[in-house]
Amino acid sequence: MMSATEIITTIVVAIIGGVSPIIVELIKSRAMIKDKPSEKSQDGIYVPGDYKFHKLPKRKLISNWQWILILTLLGGLSGYILGSKIDSNNSVDSPLSVTLTPIAFSEQSVPINPSLDGLAQNITAGVGEVTKIVTGTNNRVIIVIEEVHGSRLGQIEIAIILNRLYENYGLRHIGQEGVFAVDGALNADWFHPSLSSGQVLSLKDKVALQLLSEGEITSGEALTLIYPDFQVHGVEVPSEYNYDPPDTAWTAPIFYLYQIAVTKMTNNDEINKANELINADKTLEAIEYIISTDPWTSEKYAFITDETTINSAEEWLQLLDDIEAEANRGGIIISEEDQKAMQYLKEFYSKASNRSNLMAENMLDLASVYPETPLALIIGAAHTDMVSKMLTEAGVSVVVVRPESITKNNSSDLSSSEYDRKTQSLSVDSAGGIGALLDNRKKPQPVLNRVWFRSKAESYWLIALLARNESKEHPLMSSQLSSQFGQMQYVKLVPDSYHFLNDEKVFALNSQVENLSSPIQIWVRAKSNQREKNVNLAQALDLIFLSDFIRNMPHSEEPAAIEPMITNITSNIVAIFSTDKSVIENTSLEDIKR
Questions:
Q1: Contact by Cβ (8 Å): 28, 250
Q2: How far apart are CA 418 and CA 481, in angstroms?
Q3: What CA–CA distances, in Å, run from 39 to 20, 82, 280?
Q4: Residue closest to 13 by CA, chosen among 85, 54, 65, 59
Q5: Residue 139 confidence (pLDDT)
Q6: Spatial CB neighbours of 384, under 8 Å, sequence gap ≥ 6
Q7: Residues ≥6 apart with Cβ < 8 Å to 154
Q8: Structural domain spans, the chain
Q9: DSSP 3-state of 52
Q10: I need a labelling partner for 193 at 20 to 30 A (CA). Which of 113, 270, 272, 494 fits?
């Protein structure tokens, strides 16, 4: 059963990844609360009173996210919604279910190129699925990879796909939604990527994979930190990408559906049942039941709440137009505020559709620069239809794939607070993690270019080197370690701080912090467990994909008090952090429950 934070994360991640309900973010713990009681209209049916937005108190939410959606919309509903009995019978349809099916090829479709088919099957084997292959008229190939931005497991699956393309098909350049074209390729030179295809991973490479597993970076960013010739290019235009509708917009379509269903209710039994549910304080059941009493609203509600179907921005726009038109036909009185909220949401999806066009155009430009090798484009699934259409119309061969986990909710998804921090370009770490000490919780910027991220990545690298070092000599006495320390620009070891406490190593780092001119000192206690096997990148990604760590990763919520929190630096190196030396000196890693 999903936890409340997982439910909210599912909704938040869905819209930003472009793959699911439009009610994403769900106005972040706000609810529609009735400000005055229901009033009986001339036809004898009770109608809802006025509603305003109010903050909900913190409480444990139920696990069915559809109920969360309804509670968020009309959480404070009380009293009768519908009153008198009217002698007519309306049919009741339960919410419809839409099943996702792969795109089928008609007999008139361009024949599938066997080499493209083989490529598609090879890169997705065990981790993804192929939804479309179109052979173009020129020699350019673009693999479109759909993603859910907040899924850790999904990012591992995409990393496996990208690495297979890198090792076997010469992929070196990808486009990424959310990265601006004017900024050029992401810069990872500061991390000194040096891996060659098939080579055994270094500690630094394993640190990059740990940051990927945590959800700090995407699959493309991880490979940029590992391979020196792998580049992530921007395909977005800031003016289109940076539009965010007000919070009220996300609940507008549900409010419309509810209002439409209420006015259509004339069946005596249905009215009585709705009122019984409300009188029993079963508000959630009542609201969904009311929507289900009308076949049309039931169908649209099922479209919105279906977790398995991935719909395009254009399909969401059509849905909003249909809901608006139905309300107008029925003479439904919608407040000016709610009408504006609906227009804001329509503008959001209109811009999302335009972003699809711009991303396709920028990928075509990239293909003209690198025509000899395949390219990849990682986007939210709501953009796929339009992007692939424009690419194929330009004569490009297109392969559309998606990670296996894209339509599944799982415990690897970022929690709501983790994803909220990530969308602000902050660390997913809660208080007590090193990322929280370094990001200073300020205005968002691209992660790979942020000082806090570079400090965290170098901190992990330095900690891994010290934890793995078996010599009792001071690490600065080692020419090999000193050479690697010298490559670090954002973190420095405090020389006199290094010492042992039993088999655990204690030391301090001077780390640069986001938006602060001077570094802060962070104390670390670390140890290395049994030594890892030597593996290459493909093997390491497979191990992460199959591990309990990625599938059952605990969510990082903000704790009530800052306490040392055990953090994996690599799969077998752990550490705790604090700005207080005494906390680190007096807290053994063995004493902390993970």
A1: no
A2: 34
A3: 36, 9, 20
A4: 65
A5: 87
A6: 144, 146, 310, 312, 400
A7: 147, 148, 403, 405, 406, 412
A8: 4-93+247-328, 114-242+352-403, 424-591
A9: strand
A10: 494
What φ, ψ does residue 578 adopt, rounded to 5°? -165, 155
Convert 213-235 to b/e letters by CB count within 10 Å (16 or more is b). Answer: bbbbbbbbbbbbbbbeebbbbbb
User: What's the alpha-carbon Rg for the chain, to the nearest Å?
Assistant: 27
The model's pLDDT over 30-64, given as tens digits with 9 standing for 90+, comes to 333 333 334 433 333 333 333 332 222 222 222 33
For 96-145, give the DSSP string. P-----PPPPPTTSPPPPHHHHHHHHHHHTTTEEEEEEE--SSS-EEEEE
**In the 8-state DSSP scheme, what is residue 57?**
P
458 close to 489: Cβ distance less than 8 angstroms: yes
User: Which residues neighbour 74 within 8 Å (Cβ) at sequence distance 6 or greater?
Assistant: 31, 32, 34, 51, 255, 258, 283, 287
What is the residue type of 165? L
Give Cβ neighbours of residue 512 (< 8 Å, ≥ 6 apart).
438, 451, 454, 455, 490, 491, 519
Token look-up 């790979």 returns 448
**Tokens found for residue 266:** 């004339």
Output the CA angle 190-193-197, nearest 5 degrees: 170
User: Which residues are bridge partners to 573 per DSSP?
Assistant: 528, 570
Query: CA 453, CA 459: separation in Å to the nearest integer?
Result: 10
Please state, in angstroms and rounded to a whole number, the distance separating the CA atoms of residues 38 and 271. 14
* Chain length of the chain: 594
Per DSSP, the three-state class of 378 is strand
C-alpha neighbours within 13 Å on the C-beta side of residue 7: 21
Q: What is the pLDDT of residues 2-23, one digit of tens each?
A: 444 443 343 333 333 332 332 3
> What does the pLDDT look like over 196-240, one tens digit per residue?
999 999 999 999 999 999 888 999 999 999 999 999 999 998 888
The secondary structure of 266-285 as a DSSP string is --HHHHHHHHHHHHTT-HHH
- State pTM to two decimals: 0.71
- Per DSSP, 372 falls in state S
Q: Which of 499, 470, 465 is nearest to 482 (CA)?
A: 465
Q: Count CB atoms within 10 A of the CB of residue 509.
A: 25
